[in-house]
Predict the 3D structure of the following.
Amino acid sequence: MPNEVIHKDGEDVVVREDTAKAFRGVNWAIISIIAFVVIAGIITVVLFVGGASDGEVKSPAEAGNTANR
């Protein structure tokens, strides 16, 4: 089996190819989850600020009935 070098705990480690792929997969999964949480948080903050921009926080029912007034 071919070997690959990964960087772990501040040093280079020679591991098998399948172990290196698993290591990189876990790193990408963690990065993807963190990015998803950050993006969801930013969207939530933007929606709350946009919803309260007129100075009055409304319930969803009241916000939906603004066109009927």
Remarks:
- The chain has one domain: 3-68.
- The chain has a mean pLDDT of 85.
